[in-house]
Amino acid sequence: QVQLVESGGGLVQAGDSLRLSCTASGRTFSSFAMGWFRQAPGKEREFVAAISWITDSASYADSVKGRFTISRDNAKFTVYLQMNNLKPEDTAVYYCAGDQVRKITMPARYISNWGQGTQVTVSS
């Protein structure tokens, strides 16, 4: 079992930046990857970004490419999501996710480990 704890959400204006953090503890493994999903009211939880725990390979949803950057600090077991040029449509609860590399970009129902979520609200 992996425990994930997020921080860093908040209320910002369009064009502003935020950085989310997620720290993992518990039983990780060599093929582990971490990522971020988000869920807006009335919508399904959707993939945002993911990064392998071993390589620097990262994946992004088309809607955030060029604006969001995912990175990791292995020594701290922490993954970050730097969100720049935020838009009102980025408003959602952001969830940290952890699973095997082959699963981390799959639909949310396939993900085994979740954080508690952190609210990001972008006003226009």
Residue fraction in strands = over 45%
Alpha carbon gyration radius: 13 Å
Total count of strands: 11
Question: Biggest β-sheet: count, sense, barrel?
Answer: 7 strands, mixed
Helical content, roughly? under 10%
Mean pLDDT: 93
Low-confidence stretches: none
Distance between the termini: 39 Å
Q: Would you tell me the structural class of the helices and strands?
A: mainly beta
Quaternary organisation: single chain
Number of helices: 0
- The coarse silhouette is globular
What is the ordering of alpha helices and beta strands? EEEEEEEEEEE
Topology of helices and strands:
Layout: E1 2-7, E2 10-13, E3 18-26, E4 32-39, E5 46-52, E6 58-60, E7 68-73, E8 78-83, E9 92-100, E10 113-114, E11 118-123
Parallel strand pairs: 2-11
Antiparallel strand pairs: 1-3, 3-8, 4-5, 4-9, 5-6, 7-8, 9-10, 9-11
Question: What report would you give on this structure?
Answer:
The chain has 124 residues and is mainly β. It has strands at 2-7, 10-13, 18-26, 32-39, 46-52, 58-60, 68-73, 78-83, 92-100, 113-114, 118-123. The strands form 2 sheets. Strands 2, 4, 5, 6, 9, 10 and 11 form a 7-stranded mixed sheet that branches. Strands 1-3-8-7 form a 4-stranded antiparallel sheet, with no helix packed on it. The chain starts with a strand and ends with a strand.
